[in-house]
């Protein structure tokens, strides 16, 4: 509500469409790259009651998802021009596509930590980080679009920077109460849950975003 009256006067409808389609691509490709682990992680959280086991589950899933997003990000970078032409009909949006994908990727990684806080009934930190992310995203988008004149690139860069800053703070905050730990077993258990439902998750994601592509 606060940012749209400004952004809609500085960013063209065509650029808004490119931003929407880039977000849709980031959600669908990111969900595939993480193999649907977010759903499995939230369900498996309550299967582990010990702090050490929950830390192993969290960091194992985060590392695996980060690697998957990195591989998908490299593929997106390598084929950014043909993907932008196919998705948006214009190669000039290829940088928007790449930055938007990484912004969505950082958000997905951050959501693992937010899910931990929510599931652990830590409402205060969860609300603080969620609100901070929304406020910082709006403020950075306004600054980059209205002040720096970056146009639609300012919108995707603002989203990426805000999510990255909040994620960095969360990771530092988690160091003491949730010490770093990795284990193969919780990751395998999560994949056993996520892989069978991955096609459904991808189709749901495509179905909820296909309208943006159909309207052009």
Q: Secondary-structure element sequence?
A: HHHHHHHHH
**Which parts are unreliable, with pLDDT below 50 for 5 consecutive residues or more?**
none
Distinct helical segment count: 9
Beginning-to-end CA distance, first to last residue: 25 Å
Percent helix range: over 70%
Mean pLDDT: 93
Oligomer: single chain
Largest sheet: none
Beta-strand portion reads under 5%
Shape: globular
| Rg, nearest Å | 18 Å
**What is the number of E strands?**
0
**By helix and strand content, what is the structural category?**
mainly alpha
Q: What would you say this structure looks like, in words?
A:
The chain is globular. The chain is built from 9 helices and no strands. The longest helix has 31 residues, at 184-214. Helix 3 (37-44) crosses helix 9 (184-214) and helix 5 (80-88) packs across helix 6 (94-119). 37% of the residues are buried. With 216 residues, it is mostly helical.
Features:
82% helix; 9 helices; mainly alpha; 216 residues
Structural topology:
Elements (H helix, E strand, L loop, with lengths): L3 H7 L2 H21 L3 H8 L6 H28 L1 H9 L5 H26 L3 H25 L4 H23 L9 H31 L2
Helix pairs in contact: 2-6, 2-9, 3-4, 3-9, 4-6, 4-9, 5-6, 6-7, 6-8, 7-8
Summarize the structure.
This protein has helices at residues 4-10, 13-33, 37-44, 51-78, 80-88, 94-119, 123-147, 152-174, 184-214.
């Amino acid at each position: 509500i606060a940012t749209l009256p400004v952004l809609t006067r500085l960013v063209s409808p065509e650029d808004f469409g490119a931003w929407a389609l880039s977000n849709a691509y980031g959600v669908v490709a990111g969900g595939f790259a993480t193999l649907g682990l977010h759903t499995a992680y939230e369900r498996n959280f309550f299967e582990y009651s010990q702090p050490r086991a929950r830390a192993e589950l969290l960091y194992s899933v985060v590392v695996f998802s980060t690697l998957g997003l990195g591989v998908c990000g490299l593929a997106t970078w390598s084929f950014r021009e043909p993907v932008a032409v196919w998705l948006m009909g214009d190669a000039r949006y290829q940088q928007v596509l790449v930055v938007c994908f990484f912004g969505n990727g950082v958000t997905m990684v951050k959501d693992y930590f937010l899910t931990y806080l929510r599931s652990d009934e830590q409402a205060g930190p969860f609300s603080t980080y969620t609100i901070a992310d929304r406020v910082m995203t709006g403020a950075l988008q306004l600054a980059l679009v209205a002040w720096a004149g970056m146009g639609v690139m300012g919108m995707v860069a603002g989203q990426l920077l805000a999510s990255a800053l909040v994620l960095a703070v969360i990771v530092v905050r988690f160091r003491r109460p949730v010490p770093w730990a990795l284990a193969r077993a919780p990751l395998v258990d999560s994949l056993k849950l996520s892989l069978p439902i991955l096609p459904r998750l991808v189709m749901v994601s495509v179905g909820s975003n296909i309208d943006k592509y159909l309207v052009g």
